[in-house]
Amino acid sequence: MNGYGFRHAARMERIKLRSVRSTWWLAVAAVVVMAAAGAGVGLGYRSHTPVATAAQILNNSLGGAIVAQLLLGALGVLVVTGEYGTGMIRSTFAAVPRRRTVLAAKVAVCGGAALTVGLVASFAGYLSGQLAIRGTAIPAASLGDPAILRAVVLTGVYLGATALIGVGIGAIVRHSGAAIGTLFALMFVPMIVAGLFGESGIQIGRFVPLLMLLNSIAVTSPLPGLFASWISALLMCGYAAVAILCGGVLLRYRDA
Amino acid sequence: MVSGFRPLTALPSVDHVIELRELTKRYGDRVAVDGLSVRVQAGVVTGFLGPNGSGKSTTMRMILGLDAPDHGEALIGGVRYRDLDWPLKTVGALLDAGAFHPGRSARAHLTALAASNDIPGSRVEQVLRVVGLSDAATRRAGTYSLGMRQRLGVAVALLGDPGVLLLDEPVNGLDPEGIRWIRDLLRGLAAEGRTVFVSSHLIAEMALTADRLVVIGRGRLLAETTVAELAAGGDSLEDAFFRLTAQDTDYRGVGAS
User: What pTM was estimated for this model as a whole?
Assistant: First the structure.
């Protein structure tokens, strides 16, 4: 019992995360959005001719991740900026003065929660897409197929990583509105920029989160020029690590 | 004894001394706290007095490691705040009546902070009773009145049953009954051997609550004295305070005539 440690800080963060409504709203919204997108895509494809492929259905029914990433990214941002905006951060740092222990606890707790929600949401998108095409000639995509399972799981991982990028940006920017704006800009602006370069844009595009999601992660086989899906997912985790490290360095030197 | 706190008589009071050594903080060109050296003793209530903007809150934040001093240091029992093993069990702080998330209930707020310092859940219920928030504990703290927010802040300060208490303007927003409650609470805590350091800009309130006074103006130490000494000059305590701080008030209106 020689002082507090990561374990104590993580317990505090878990209680804090569970005890505000925004956490639950954002988590439920992420799952509902993905389920609705999956169902919508499935219903749309019912009258599709020629008959859609399993890969098309899968890719499109995971499309709700475009919105879900913003919701879970906002969740990650708010875990940090929600404390700065309200003054709670001073109570937190008074209780746990080693600030990087606090950040590590937030990363572990929020990352774990967002990964769980992301996997549930991704699975919900897949499942509702499959349910919506039942009874048609469209081939079912089985989770027994490694390529299908990988796409569903890695989409969940992508969503979890987005929340962690949000935590890092939150620690850097500290203001809710500005941090969420920064996160959204980082998600969409690089995609637009990559688009400006036409064919050669793929050289940049394979590093862009949203393009990785749509063309490498949430598909059975990535578009030519993009990284393999697991590399794309790893790259997202790398972005999160960079954002969190920057936040951690700044956290140490700035007044709370 | 105040509401069943453990007595501290077994502990050497030197562990609870707050020591500021040439504490200095600048914001750009402005010096908020200027070479402040003070020792705050255990067993008495020490009032930390100064006009608005004199650097009281900045000093409190530096003691808690929230703001980093540009020069000097603040020690609690010889240790910097950030090096404490169990911060909440050593120092209890009331910073401002807003250091909580408005969407979180008082009970969840206290439970989260308790978990960080391995404080049992039974203690959460105990401090809720002490501050009179048991019935409102499940309500979101954002719906609280200013007085209830102050009480929640006091509950946080008491949570770890600490030997040192730092309170920044604790009577702000309290009604007369609340002010008397704070006064009795603080005097009781000091009588148990704890160190109680309370900032205020209200000299009249400090005269009733504090034994010793640390007076600052523009970040500099003006006097380290007792209430009795300050009042011994013949004029009122209020006049003595104004005389002391006359050169060190940033903003002062002039008579309407």
Answer: 0.92
